[in-house]
Design a protein that fits this description.
The protein is built from seven helices and no strands. With 90 residues, it is mainly α. It has one domain. The chain starts with a helix and ends with a helix.
Length: 90
């Protein structure tokens, strides 16, 4: 997924970034979290991948952009299934 989308979602919804990665935002900004998760995400020393850390931010962006019938487009844009989009919009 394009990091521009993740960065925008994180800046709009900073309180939804998973702990303890939210403290990285305060110290170093979104780019630090992106670099950290892209370099170390999924290794044995468990660090959630970028998508997991920012999942709630992306869900809120999808909710914000929902127009009543664009489930599939939002799913594709934010990397969710159409079913997941429908679930978060309830």
């Amino acid at each position: 997924m394009d990091t521009t989308i993740i960065r925008r979602a994180a800046l709009r919804h900073p309180s939804e970034i998973m702990q303890p990665y939210d403290s990285l935002l305060e110290l170093n900004g979104v780019d630090a979290i992106l670099a950290f998760t892209e370099q170390l995400g999924g290794m044995t020393v468990y660090v959630p991948n970028t998508r997991t850390v920012f999942a709630r931010c992306l869900e809120l962006e999808a909710k914000r952009e929902f127009n009543g019938h664009n489930y599939a487009r939002l799913g594709k844009k934010y990397g969710f299934t159409e079913r997941h989009i429908r679930r978060i919009l309830k």
